[in-house]
Design brief:
single chain; mainly beta; Jelly Rolls; four-stranded antiparallel sheet; 0% helix; elongated
């Protein structure tokens, strides 16, 4: 996945996959603000949907991490999740909030890995 968002107030790329409660996943995404001196608001988030397609009610179980402001180099964003009860779909989100005029966020090498259970 290589993508960018320019001057977005609230925008994201979504990719979803079917999951089961209790499964664990690691989400990774490289992100960069361009130019680094403008607020870019780039983030990686994981959200869930139930079997009917509605967003899961437990938003406190849906992590989000943003790149630090003012960084000129690519930043690796990483989140680890355990799928909650009632979730049927995991949604990987690369997005932005509140970008300044002339700002863009660059995204690359987004990945989602299922972590096998160790017995």
């Amino acid at each position: 996945m290589a993508a960018s968002i320019r001057e977005g107030q609230s925008a994201c790329y979504l990719q979803s996959c079917k999951v089961q409660a209790g499964e664990r996943y690691l989400g990774l995404l490289w992100a960069k603000a361009d130019p680094p001196d403008k607020p870019g608001g780039a983030y990686l988030a994981i959200r869930y949907r139930d079997a009917q397609g509605a967003w899961h009610s437990r938003t406190d179980l849906e992590p989000q991490i943003s790149i630090p402001e003012g960084q000129k180099d690519w930043q690796l964003l990483a989140v680890m999740v355990t799928v909650p009860e009632g979730a049927a779909t995991l949604t990987f989100m690369a997005g932005v909030r509140g970008q300044a005029q002339g700002a863009q966020a660059l995204f690359d090498e987004g990945a989602l890995y299922r972590i096998p259970e160790v017995k």
